[in-house]
Protein backbone atom coordinates (compact mmCIF):
# COMPACT_ATOMS: atom_id res chain seq x y z
CA UNK A 1 0.00 0.00 0.00
CA UNK A 2 1.27 3.48 -0.91
CA UNK A 3 2.23 5.96 1.79
CA UNK A 4 1.27 9.57 0.96
CA UNK A 5 3.31 12.65 1.75
CA UNK A 6 1.97 13.38 5.22
CA UNK A 7 2.70 17.10 4.92
CA UNK A 8 -0.39 17.42 2.72
CA UNK A 9 -2.56 16.75 5.76
CA UNK A 10 -0.49 18.46 8.48
CA UNK A 11 -2.92 21.15 9.57
CA UNK A 12 -1.92 23.75 12.12
CA UNK A 13 1.52 24.79 10.86
CA UNK A 14 1.91 28.53 11.42
CA UNK A 15 4.81 29.26 9.04
CA UNK A 16 5.35 28.25 5.44
CA UNK A 17 7.92 28.56 2.69
CA UNK A 18 6.83 27.75 -0.87
CA UNK A 19 9.63 27.51 -3.43
CA UNK A 20 9.35 26.78 -7.15
CA UNK A 21 12.46 25.72 -9.06
CA UNK A 22 13.42 25.61 -12.72
CA UNK A 23 15.53 22.66 -13.83
CA UNK A 24 19.05 23.60 -14.89
CA UNK A 25 19.75 23.05 -18.57
CA UNK A 26 22.57 20.65 -17.77
CA UNK A 27 20.61 18.63 -15.20
CA UNK A 28 19.20 15.18 -15.96
CA UNK A 29 15.60 14.65 -14.88
CA UNK A 30 16.37 11.43 -13.01
CA UNK A 31 19.15 13.11 -11.04
CA UNK A 32 16.81 15.99 -10.21
CA UNK A 33 14.16 13.61 -8.85
CA UNK A 34 16.81 11.72 -6.88
CA UNK A 35 18.17 14.94 -5.38
CA UNK A 36 14.73 16.10 -4.24
CA UNK A 37 13.86 12.64 -2.93
CA UNK A 38 17.06 12.67 -0.91
CA UNK A 39 16.16 15.83 1.03
CA UNK A 40 12.60 14.84 1.93
CA UNK A 41 12.80 12.20 4.64
CA UNK A 42 15.82 13.19 6.76
CA UNK A 43 14.90 16.88 6.90
CA UNK A 44 11.37 16.16 8.04
CA UNK A 45 12.58 13.79 10.74
CA UNK A 46 15.48 15.79 12.11
CA UNK A 47 14.38 19.39 11.73
CA UNK A 48 10.78 19.03 12.91
CA UNK A 49 9.17 20.49 9.79
CA UNK A 50 6.66 19.14 7.30
CA UNK A 51 7.58 18.67 3.66
CA UNK A 52 5.60 18.40 0.45
CA UNK A 53 7.48 18.03 -2.83
CA UNK A 54 6.08 17.93 -6.33
CA UNK A 55 7.23 17.80 -9.91
CA UNK A 56 6.07 19.14 -13.24
CA UNK A 57 3.89 16.25 -14.46
CA UNK A 58 5.87 15.72 -17.65
CA UNK A 59 9.15 15.67 -15.74
CA UNK A 60 7.85 12.98 -13.40
CA UNK A 61 6.43 10.99 -16.33
CA UNK A 62 9.80 11.05 -18.08
CA UNK A 63 11.46 9.46 -15.05
CA UNK A 64 8.82 6.86 -14.15
CA UNK A 65 5.90 6.66 -16.62
CA UNK A 66 4.32 3.70 -14.83
CA UNK A 67 3.88 5.86 -11.70
CA UNK A 68 2.47 8.92 -13.47
CA UNK A 69 -1.29 9.67 -13.62
CA UNK A 70 -2.36 10.03 -17.26
CA UNK A 71 -4.54 13.09 -16.63
CA UNK A 72 -1.79 15.22 -15.05
CA UNK A 73 -0.40 18.00 -17.24
CA UNK A 74 1.43 21.29 -16.80
CA UNK A 75 -0.28 24.66 -16.59
CA UNK A 76 1.15 25.97 -19.85
CA UNK A 77 -1.69 28.05 -21.31
CA UNK A 78 -3.37 30.97 -19.60
CA UNK A 79 -7.11 30.76 -19.01
CA UNK A 80 -9.06 33.65 -20.49
CA UNK A 81 -12.68 34.30 -19.61
CA UNK A 82 -15.25 35.73 -22.03
CA UNK A 83 -14.71 39.24 -20.62
CA UNK A 84 -10.92 38.97 -20.94
CA UNK A 85 -10.23 38.09 -17.31
CA UNK A 86 -6.99 36.08 -17.36
CA UNK A 87 -5.53 33.43 -15.08
CA UNK A 88 -1.81 33.20 -15.95
CA UNK A 89 0.29 30.10 -16.49
CA UNK A 90 3.68 30.19 -14.77
CA UNK A 91 4.61 26.52 -14.69
CA UNK A 92 7.94 25.53 -13.11
CA UNK A 93 9.66 22.14 -12.73
CA UNK A 94 9.95 21.44 -9.00
CA UNK A 95 7.81 22.51 -6.06
CA UNK A 96 8.93 22.33 -2.42
CA UNK A 97 6.74 23.37 0.51
CA UNK A 98 8.27 23.54 3.98
CA UNK A 99 5.99 24.20 6.95
CA UNK A 100 6.43 24.29 10.70
CA UNK A 101 5.45 25.90 13.96
CA UNK A 102 8.18 28.55 13.89
CA UNK A 103 9.50 30.45 10.90
CA UNK A 104 13.06 30.23 12.20
CA UNK A 105 13.08 26.48 11.64
CA UNK A 106 11.33 26.84 8.30
CA UNK A 107 13.85 29.45 7.16
CA UNK A 108 16.86 27.36 8.15
CA UNK A 109 15.54 24.26 6.40
CA UNK A 110 14.52 26.21 3.30
CA UNK A 111 18.03 27.67 3.09
CA UNK A 112 19.57 24.21 3.33
CA UNK A 113 17.13 22.84 0.74
CA UNK A 114 18.03 25.56 -1.79
CA UNK A 115 21.72 24.78 -1.24
CA UNK A 116 21.12 21.06 -1.75
CA UNK A 117 19.00 21.48 -4.86
CA UNK A 118 21.12 24.15 -6.59
CA UNK A 119 23.14 21.53 -8.47
CA UNK A 120 20.04 20.54 -10.44
CA UNK A 121 17.59 23.44 -10.17
CA UNK A 122 17.39 27.19 -9.58
CA UNK A 123 14.71 28.94 -7.48
CA UNK A 124 12.42 31.06 -9.61
CA UNK A 125 9.78 31.98 -7.02
CA UNK A 126 9.63 31.95 -3.23
CA UNK A 127 6.62 32.91 -1.13
CA UNK A 128 6.42 33.08 2.65
CA UNK A 129 3.06 32.11 4.13
CA UNK A 130 1.72 32.58 7.63
CA UNK A 131 -1.41 32.00 9.70
CA UNK A 132 -3.92 34.80 10.19
CA UNK A 133 -6.56 34.74 12.96
CA UNK A 134 -6.33 30.96 13.29
CA UNK A 135 -8.14 29.97 10.09
CA UNK A 136 -9.06 33.09 8.14
CA UNK A 137 -7.65 34.60 4.98
CA UNK A 138 -6.95 38.31 4.59
CA UNK A 139 -10.49 39.06 3.41
CA UNK A 140 -11.53 38.28 6.98
CA UNK A 141 -13.48 35.16 6.01
CA UNK A 142 -12.74 31.63 7.14
CA UNK A 143 -10.76 29.68 4.56
CA UNK A 144 -11.34 26.00 3.82
CA UNK A 145 -14.72 25.80 5.54
CA UNK A 146 -15.87 23.16 3.06
CA UNK A 147 -12.70 21.10 3.34
CA UNK A 148 -13.31 17.41 3.99
CA UNK A 149 -12.29 16.19 7.43
CA UNK A 150 -8.90 14.54 7.83
CA UNK A 151 -10.75 11.22 7.91
CA UNK A 152 -12.33 11.88 4.50
CA UNK A 153 -9.55 13.96 2.91
CA UNK A 154 -7.44 11.02 1.64
CA UNK A 155 -10.39 9.88 -0.49
CA UNK A 156 -10.51 13.35 -2.07
CA UNK A 157 -6.77 13.91 -2.37
CA UNK A 158 -5.09 10.60 -3.16
CA UNK A 159 -5.06 8.61 -6.37
CA UNK A 160 -6.54 5.18 -5.54
CA UNK A 161 -4.47 2.04 -5.19
CA UNK A 162 -4.05 0.14 -8.44
CA UNK A 163 -3.97 3.27 -10.58
CA UNK A 164 -0.83 4.97 -11.96
CA UNK A 165 0.44 7.39 -9.37
CA UNK A 166 -1.33 5.61 -6.49
CA UNK A 167 -0.99 7.47 -3.20
CA UNK A 168 -0.01 10.66 -5.02
CA UNK A 169 -2.00 13.81 -5.70
CA UNK A 170 -2.39 16.67 -8.15
CA UNK A 171 -1.52 20.10 -6.74
CA UNK A 172 -2.72 23.44 -8.07
CA UNK A 173 -0.43 26.18 -6.74
CA UNK A 174 -1.23 29.87 -7.20
CA UNK A 175 -0.55 33.30 -5.75
CA UNK A 176 -3.56 35.65 -5.61
CA UNK A 177 -3.07 39.35 -4.81
CA UNK A 178 -5.94 41.13 -3.03
CA UNK A 179 -7.16 44.63 -3.80
CA UNK A 180 -7.37 45.27 -0.08
CA UNK A 181 -8.47 48.90 -0.25
CA UNK A 182 -11.38 48.13 -2.56
CA UNK A 183 -12.39 45.14 -0.43
CA UNK A 184 -12.33 47.09 2.83
CA UNK A 185 -14.49 49.79 1.24
CA UNK A 186 -17.35 47.30 0.87
CA UNK A 187 -20.01 46.77 3.50
CA UNK A 188 -19.96 43.45 5.33
CA UNK A 189 -23.25 42.57 3.63
CA UNK A 190 -21.71 43.10 0.19
CA UNK A 191 -18.64 41.08 1.13
CA UNK A 192 -20.86 38.24 2.31
CA UNK A 193 -22.79 38.27 -0.98
CA UNK A 194 -19.53 38.02 -2.90
CA UNK A 195 -18.30 35.08 -0.83
CA UNK A 196 -21.67 33.36 -0.30
CA UNK A 197 -21.20 33.00 3.47
CA UNK A 198 -21.62 35.03 6.61
CA UNK A 199 -18.38 36.64 7.71
CA UNK A 200 -18.48 36.04 11.45
CA UNK A 201 -19.83 32.48 11.64
CA UNK A 202 -19.00 31.25 8.09
CA UNK A 203 -22.55 30.00 7.55
CA UNK A 204 -23.26 29.29 3.89
CA UNK A 205 -26.26 31.07 2.35
CA UNK A 206 -29.19 28.87 1.46
CA UNK A 207 -29.94 28.31 -2.22
CA UNK A 208 -32.70 30.90 -2.36
CA UNK A 209 -30.28 33.65 -1.26
CA UNK A 210 -27.06 32.44 -2.89
CA UNK A 211 -25.88 34.80 -5.68
CA UNK A 212 -25.06 33.05 -8.96
CA UNK A 213 -21.67 34.75 -9.08
CA UNK A 214 -20.69 34.11 -5.44
CA UNK A 215 -17.35 32.48 -4.72
CA UNK A 216 -19.11 29.51 -3.13
CA UNK A 217 -21.27 28.98 -6.22
CA UNK A 218 -18.45 29.26 -8.71
CA UNK A 219 -16.05 26.97 -6.83
CA UNK A 220 -18.57 24.24 -6.02
CA UNK A 221 -18.39 21.46 -8.60
CA UNK A 222 -21.02 18.78 -9.12
CA UNK A 223 -21.20 15.79 -11.41
CA UNK A 224 -24.27 13.57 -11.63
CA UNK A 225 -25.60 15.17 -8.47
CA UNK A 226 -22.41 14.51 -6.48
CA UNK A 227 -20.06 17.24 -5.33
CA UNK A 228 -16.47 16.91 -6.51
CA UNK A 229 -14.44 18.19 -3.58
CA UNK A 230 -10.85 19.34 -3.33
CA UNK A 231 -8.63 19.81 -0.25
CA UNK A 232 -7.35 23.35 0.36
CA UNK A 233 -4.26 24.27 2.40
CA UNK A 234 -4.26 27.99 1.62
CA UNK A 235 -2.23 30.53 3.58
CA UNK A 236 -2.00 34.33 3.60
CA UNK A 237 1.19 36.02 2.38
CA UNK A 238 2.65 39.50 2.20
CA UNK A 239 2.73 42.82 3.99
CA UNK A 240 0.18 45.47 4.90
CA UNK A 241 0.71 47.18 1.54
CA UNK A 242 0.91 44.09 -0.66
CA UNK A 243 -0.77 40.85 0.37
CA UNK A 244 -3.08 38.06 -0.65
CA UNK A 245 -3.62 34.33 -0.63
CA UNK A 246 -1.40 31.42 -1.55
CA UNK A 247 -3.78 28.85 -3.02
CA UNK A 248 -2.66 25.29 -2.31
CA UNK A 249 -5.28 22.87 -3.63
CA UNK A 250 -5.03 19.07 -3.83
CA UNK A 251 -7.22 16.56 -5.67
CA UNK A 252 -6.95 13.06 -7.04
CA UNK A 253 -8.11 14.35 -10.45
CA UNK A 254 -6.73 17.41 -12.19
CA UNK A 255 -10.09 17.91 -13.86
CA UNK A 256 -11.60 19.08 -10.57
CA UNK A 257 -9.04 21.84 -10.17
CA UNK A 258 -9.18 22.87 -13.81
CA UNK A 259 -12.97 23.11 -13.84
CA UNK A 260 -12.89 25.24 -10.71
CA UNK A 261 -10.56 27.76 -12.36
CA UNK A 262 -12.63 27.80 -15.54
CA UNK A 263 -15.82 28.47 -13.57
CA UNK A 264 -14.12 31.27 -11.63
CA UNK A 265 -13.14 32.93 -14.93
CA UNK A 266 -16.64 32.49 -16.36
CA UNK A 267 -15.55 30.05 -19.05
CA UNK A 268 -18.54 28.07 -20.28
CA UNK A 269 -21.46 30.15 -19.01
CA UNK A 270 -20.10 33.70 -18.82
CA UNK A 271 -20.68 34.02 -15.06
CA UNK A 272 -17.48 35.21 -13.43
CA UNK A 273 -16.66 34.69 -9.77
CA UNK A 274 -17.38 37.99 -8.00
CA UNK A 275 -14.32 37.54 -5.80
CA UNK A 276 -12.06 37.79 -8.85
CA UNK A 277 -12.95 41.47 -9.06
CA UNK A 278 -11.03 41.97 -5.82
CA UNK A 279 -8.31 39.31 -6.16
CA UNK A 280 -5.92 38.93 -9.08
CA UNK A 281 -4.02 35.71 -9.87
CA UNK A 282 -0.30 36.27 -10.35
CA UNK A 283 0.80 32.67 -10.92
CA UNK A 284 -0.54 29.25 -11.87
CA UNK A 285 1.11 25.81 -11.93
CA UNK A 286 0.21 22.13 -11.57
CA UNK A 287 2.50 19.64 -9.87
CA UNK A 288 2.30 15.93 -9.30
CA UNK A 289 2.97 15.10 -5.65
CA UNK A 290 4.06 11.44 -5.63
CA UNK A 291 3.48 9.06 -2.77
CA UNK A 292 6.26 9.11 -0.21
CA UNK A 293 6.76 5.38 -0.70
CA UNK A 294 7.24 5.94 -4.44
CA UNK A 295 9.53 8.93 -3.95
CA UNK A 296 11.69 6.91 -1.55
CA UNK A 297 12.67 4.55 -4.37
CA UNK A 298 14.61 7.40 -5.98
CA UNK A 299 16.40 8.61 -2.86
CA UNK A 300 20.15 7.96 -2.79
CA UNK A 301 21.36 5.41 -0.24
Which helices and strands appear, and what pairs or packs with what?
Layout (H helix, E strand, L loop, with lengths): L14 E9 L5 H19 L2 E6 L1 H7 L15 E2 L5 E2 L6 E7 L2 H15 L3 E10 L22 H5 L11 E10 L1 H5 L3 H8 L19 H5 L2 E2 L2 E2 L3 E2 L2 E4 L4 E9 L2 H12 L13 E3 L3 E5 L2 H4 L6
Antiparallel strand pairs: 1-5, 1-6, 2-5, 3-4, 7-12, 7-13, 7-14, 8-9, 10-12, 11-12
Written account of the structure:
The protein is α+β, with helices and mostly antiparallel strands. Helices cover 27% and strands 24% of the residues. The radius of gyration is 19 Å and the shape is globular.
What is the CA-based Rg, rounded? 19 Å
Biggest sheet descriptor: 6 strands, antiparallel
Strand content: 15-25%
Question: How many extended strands?
Answer: 14
Distance between the termini: 22 Å
Order of helices and strands: EHEHEEEHEHEHHHEEEEEHEEH
Estimate percent helicity. 25-40%
Mean of all residue-level pLDDT scores = 95
Based on Cα principal axes, name the global outline: globular
Quick take:
The protein is of the alpha+beta class. It has 9 helices and 14 strands. The model has no long low-confidence stretch (mean pLDDT 95).
What descriptors fit this protein?
single chain, 4-stranded antiparallel beta sheet, globular, 9 helices, 6-stranded antiparallel beta sheet, alpha+beta, 301 residues
Amino acid sequence: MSTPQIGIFSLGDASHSFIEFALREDAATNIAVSTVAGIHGPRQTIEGVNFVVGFRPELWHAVTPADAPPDAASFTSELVGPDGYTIPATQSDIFIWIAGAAYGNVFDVATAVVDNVKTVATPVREITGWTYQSNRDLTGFQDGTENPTLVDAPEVVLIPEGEPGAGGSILLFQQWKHDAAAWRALTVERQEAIIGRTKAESIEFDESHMPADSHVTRTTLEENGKELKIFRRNTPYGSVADHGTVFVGFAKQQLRLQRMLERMAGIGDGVRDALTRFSVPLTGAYYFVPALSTLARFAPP
